[in-house]
Each structure stands twice: as C-alpha cells, then as structure tokens.
Amino acid sequence: MNTLIYTSVLGFATMLMEVLNLRKFIVPLAVIGLAVIFGLNLQDWNQPSTHFNDMLGVSNFSVAFSGLALFITLIILVMAGEYYTNDENHISDYVAILIFITAGAMMMMSFNNLVMMFLGIETLSIALYALAGSKRFDTRSNEAGFKYFLMGSFASAILLFGIALVYGSVHSFHLSLIASFISENSTLPPMFITGVILIGFAMLFKVSAAPFHFWAPDVYEGAPALITAFMSTLVKIAGFAALYRLVTIGFNNGTPQTDQMLYVVAILTLLTGNLSALAQDNFKRLMAYSGISHAGYMLLIVLSAKSNVSSTLFYYSAAYAVAGLAAFSVALPVFKSTGSELLSAFNGLGKKNPVMAAGLTMAMIGMAGIPPFAGFFGKFYLFTKAFESGLFYIVLLAVINSMIGVYYYFKVIMAMYGKQPDETQIENPLSYQLVMWVCTALSLLWGIVPSLLTDLLL
C-alpha cells in the first residue's frame, strides 16, 4: 500500500519540478525515487495486509510483481533521458505518465476487488493511450494512439459490463465472495457465466491474446520505440498478474467455461504469434508478434493455476522482461542512427559495433528460450507445470511453436552477422549500454541460478 502511495507522490513530484523550472533534475529524481521505493517495497515481504476495506491486498505475490514493475520502469527511465534529448520541454509529462502507469500496474497486481482492478486498468490504459500517440507530428503515432484508444475503450466497456453482471449475481465486488459464490453453487446462473466470459474477453484484449490481438502490431509499430518497450514488458506483465489473481482468487481457479475459453485462446495465440512473426521485416512488429506468442505461453501458466504456479509466472515474467529490455536497449540507438525500424537496419552490426551485436544476440537467444539464459528455464518450468496439469496436447503444440520462434529471432542475428554493413555509424550512449549489460547479466544470472526467483513465491 505504501509503495503505491510513494509511487503516485513521485509522479506528482516530477510534475512539480517542471513548475519549479528544475527540468534537468526530473529524470535523475525519478530514477533515484524509484530505486528508493523498490527498497521500501521489500519491507512488505512476509507482511500481508489489506487496505480500503480489503479492496487492496499486500502479499508476497503483489510485492514481487510490484518490485518487478518498479525495476522495469526504472530501466525505461534510464533510457528516457537519452531518448527524449530532443524533446526536453515535455520530459516531465513523459516521466510523470510513465510513473502513473506503474501505479496503475501495481493496483492490478494487488487488487482484491473488481472495482479496484478496473481502476488500475484504466489508470494504466488512459495514460498509455496518450504515450502511444505522443509523437504529435508522426501520422503512425497518431494512428497508434487513436487505434489503441478506440479498441481499448470498447474493451473497458465490455469489462465494466461483465463486472456489472457478476455483481448482479453475487451482490459483491470482492474476489473472496465471488469465489464463495462459485463454490456454493453447483449450477452457476447464466448471468454470472456471461459476466465472467465478458471479463475474460476484456482481460485477454489487455494482454493481446488472439483473437483479441489485432491492435498490438499496429500500435507497437506506430508508438515511440521507448513506449513500445514499456508496453511489451510492464503492461503485458501487469495484465497477466491481474488475470492470474482474477482466476486463482476470484474465479476459484477457474470455471469450466473459463478453462475452455482460455484453452482455445492459448492455442490461437501460440499459432498466431509465432506464424505471423515469421513474415515480419519490421523489428517492432516482430516484437509485437513475439509478445503475442509469449502471451500464449503465459496463458498456459494461468491454465495450470490449480497447481499454484505463481512462482512460475513471476520467473517467466522477469525473464521475458529483461530479455525484451536488453533487445530494445540496442534497437533504440540503431533506430535513431539509421532512421529505420526495419530488420535491415541491423545489417552488419556485428562488424560495425560488435558489443551491441553481442548484446542483442544474447537478448534474442534469451527470448527464444535457449540456455544458459533465463528464458530457457522460464519455458522449462512453464511446460513442466502445464504437463503436470494434464495439458498434454497444448504443451506439445507450445514446444513446436517454441522451435518456430527460434527462426524469427535468428532473423535479427543473421542480419547482424550475415549481411554486409553500410556506412552508417551507430552511436551508442552510455545509458543504453548500461541497460543492455544489466539486463543481459540478470538474464544470465537467473538462467544459471533460477532458484533466486523461483523460491520467492513457493
């Protein structure tokens, strides 16, 4: 609870510094502030509590995911100082909105009440609509912001309608009472089932699972690259943390209807993400479809929720986040130097800048799930839990799709080492290098010693 308050206060503090004409201190203050809040967040470990009449609950689950959210935002802000060098007049706006998105994500990771879940989603989403379209004179950014806003508004309306139907059946928004309602009724009323399905549809949209994924490639491509990195990591992780809480606490580890829906959606998401990524020649669109495929893998964790797989979800989320951030820490300076976001922009990078090429190679290997990086054990634990839960056929399909994924990740690597370089020089600022090596080191460390994360939420 204190972590959420401190994060919100930090967001307001960054806006106040703009008023006080202390613009050059905004990014350092935000980075230091998030680092301090990260430490304070750890004080809630093994200290469960509830707040606002049990609308928010502090648990090891919420502390772990909130810590991951703070870490991702801190990494994004380290890169933001360099990324927004030419737009310093609006730096306070960007930083404040990023922090408020983090606050919304924390609400999604700790809600015990459907109203609080809705508030968290809207806090995150509305701020993200603005950032997706923040390049005012770029038509692609304008299109991304408008498309995301339009589709997100429909999803929010569907979510609210579903919540209303569940409330009409249970007469409560609290997850524990909804779970009790499911346990006490052998036959669930149609209104309740309809509400649960509508909530499920809306949440699947938020995590860009097929067939609700259609917005993601266009929005990822059109949004500023730094915001794409933020969306592909924190926003997706927050969505799955919320979905996992909803299924495990509120829906009593799933109803037959939700299990069937998630099973079908997981298959569609795996196939859509991996097969569509094969044809992409734009790096951001490739990462969008990669994110869709990872959503399919994470849906397997949700389907295995009866086995208490919170540690697996956290490990996979952390592994996916550091690999994605490492990839974008190389891609951002390449985009800026070449003026292109196509895979061809990476041609010959292995000769022009071997260090950057090595960093991006390790990031792609980590996302593909190849040892010794954390992505390997993320998929290993995921497949093991899903297999133990009886999801034999979908695990087999996921393994095949994981092999397909290796191909499109290696398209980037082949461009760096197998294509001839042009004369464009790549400038790689220190902040990007720092992010690349920190994230790569963490991916390697968690891959060698996975118990550092897996033992947290046992």
How would you describe this protein?
The chain is an all-alpha fold and 458 residues long. The protein has a domain at 255-458. It is built from 19 helices and two strands. The chain has a two-stranded antiparallel sheet. Strand 1 (49-51) and strand 2 form a beta hairpin. Helix 3 (60-83) packs parallel to helix 13 (310-338) and helix 12 runs antiparallel to helix 13 (310-338). The two termini are 22 Å apart.
Q: Topology of this structure?
A:
Blueprint: H1 2-19, H2 26-42, E1 49-51, E2 56-58, H3 60-83, H4 91-110, H5 114-132, H6 139-170, H7 175-184, H8 190-206, H9 216-222, H10 225-250, H11 256-277, H12 283-303, H13 310-338, H14 349-352, H15 354-368, H16 374-388, H17 392-418, H18 430-448, H19 451-454
Antiparallel strand pairs: 1-2
Helix pairs in contact: 1-2, 1-4, 2-3, 3-4, 3-10, 3-13, 4-5, 4-10, 5-6, 5-10, 6-8, 6-9, 8-10, 9-10, 9-12, 10-12, 10-13, 11-12, 11-17, 12-13, 12-16, 12-17, 13-15, 13-16, 13-18, 15-17, 15-18, 16-17, 16-18
Quick one: biggest sheet?
Answer: 2 strands, antiparallel
Structural Rg? 21 Å
Share of residues in strands: under 5%
**Helicity, in percent?**
over 70%
The structural class is mainly alpha
Distance between the termini: 22 Å
- Coarse morphology: globular
Strand order of the largest sheet: 1-2
What descriptive keywords fit this protein?
458 residues, mainly alpha, two-stranded antiparallel ribbon, 19 helices, 2 strands, 76% helix
